[in-house]
Design a protein that fits this description.
The protein is mainly alpha-helical. It has helices spanning 3-11, 13-17, 27-53, 66-99, 106-117, 126-165, 170-206, 209-228, 245-268, and strands spanning 232-236, 239-243. The protein is 76% helix and 4% strand. The protein is elongated.
Amino acid sequence: MSASVRLFIRSGPIYNRRMYISPKKHLLSDTLLLAALIRICGTALNAGIRLAMRSAGSLSPDMLNARISNAQFAVSALQLILVFAVMLRSYFRIRHMISVIPREDRSEIRQLQKEQFGDDISSLSAEKVSRLLEIWMTILVGAQSLYDVSAILYRDAVRDMADILSEAGGAGRSETFELYNVTHGFKYLSMFIAIMLGIMITGIFLRDRFLKISAVLISALFILCFAFVQMTTLSFLNARIGVVWTSVIFHVLETFGLLITAFYLRVRYNGV
């Protein structure tokens, strides 16, 4: 590599823009943070819709209310578009940073950066950050899209089963609630696994024991609630709410869990 290129590397701009991005840039964690905030707003809006539209004292699952389901689908679609836009923008930014340097020079530039800056360097190379962005975009956009479609199909299946069982009168109503209780965890299973894989893979990339252990413990808690914990009925604002604990774990994970993960990555690692 020419002396002029070496001088350019040591002068700073290539450190800030190329193989190891600046420690002050946090593309991955900032993107996850924005995605988490969007999901928190969407979840809060969905909760408000459910409280505003549900019938007072009704124990019927909200998914059987057509108005609530349609409104929540609209919120989910908007949320998906916003998350996709945020993640795509970050992905194009980091790919642009990488593309400026010819592929054959990248290994040497990376080594020169390590020699020049020592420990004051990003925890991951720009290429690895780019791969993690791809993984999280696949999860928060691709897997989320599949989750939304499967949620619609699950709602239709429960609604059809409720119509069939309603012919049995009171016993049919009881069986509908039992069906909803024992199958509701399946609705969240695919997206839950996707987010857990995202956290685990991020931990593997960073060799972070805390992320990997956290993923295992949260998965164990979800399985425990899925297999053994029954639905709990609570009263809130003159409405009776059936709480399915797998649903609680999933919604906390996809919002505040993602938010905490983003903050952890931002504080713990340079340039991630």
